[in-house]
User: Fold Ubiquinone biosynthesis O-methyltransferase, mitochondrial from Eucalyptus grandis.
Amino acid sequence: MASKLLSRVRAVPARLGYPRPFSPTLAAFAPSRLLSDAAAAGAGDSPPASASPAPRPSGSSGKLEHNAGCSSVRSSLKDSELAKFSAIADTWWDSEGPFKPLHRMNPTRLAFIRSTLCRHFGKDPSSARPFEGLKVVDVGCGGGILSEPLARMGASVTGVDAVDKNIKIASIHADLDPVTSTIEYCCTTAEKLVEEQRKFDAVISLEVIEHVADPAEFCKSLAALTIPEGAIVISTINRSMRAYATAIVAAEYLLRWLPKGTHQWSSFLTPEELALILQRSSISVKEMAGFVYNPLTGRWSLSDDVGVNFIAFGTKNSQ
Assistant:
């Protein structure tokens, strides 16, 4: 299944100045191939005997004035996930704390986002503010470690998260810089934004989908927030044995990069499953890349290896 997917991947220059500046592309996903692959893929997979939850928050962030009533917001996140990320919310901007892997991965995630969004919207990737004029929502923004660089690249950013503490921390940190103080942080969910009929040029949700109760419904909400021909970027962890060995056994128990119980292997999605879920939400996957960690340099880079961490870029079909 994964080999069939990777046979459609080709590397293209990204020219972003990061350690390995390229992004593998799924230029022509064949829906029929995806349907057959995903049908054969994961539904009956059984997880390893011991598994636990994943590395990163989901659901929301917001300016302090939007926090009232946050606890009453219905969230697509599992209750256990909300409690977990609330407990470590005050460590978001500690680059050596529980979110250290995300701080290390952030430049590579931004490389993929800059490359794909600039290509799709006809922006200049060499510009200091290539996202000028774009309305972007960061769903599951946590403490704002992705929202802030998006704002510095010129985007009009809305950051949402279901964890009240995340919103407060994101707001306080963003207010330290006049550029990032323009971010609209809201303690809410994607589903609530849909009810409010909010629309964005680009919808970004990184390391979130593995924490939600219903990935298909979550993707429908992300699609509903996206304008026709708009963009969606999602990253997550593959439900593979390699991911279990590295993201859980190594990262949590051997290297102790993350608190034990951060990941739940059974909640991960394969690339085929994610692509099929997005397709059923009127999102066509155009590019996909893997993240590979180099223990010698301590850096992440983009790769065509989607066996563990991967990121997907798609566009919403015109209605």
In short: Strands lie at 10-13, 22-25, 135-139, 156-161, 184-187, 200-206, 226-237, 283-294, 299-303, 309-316.
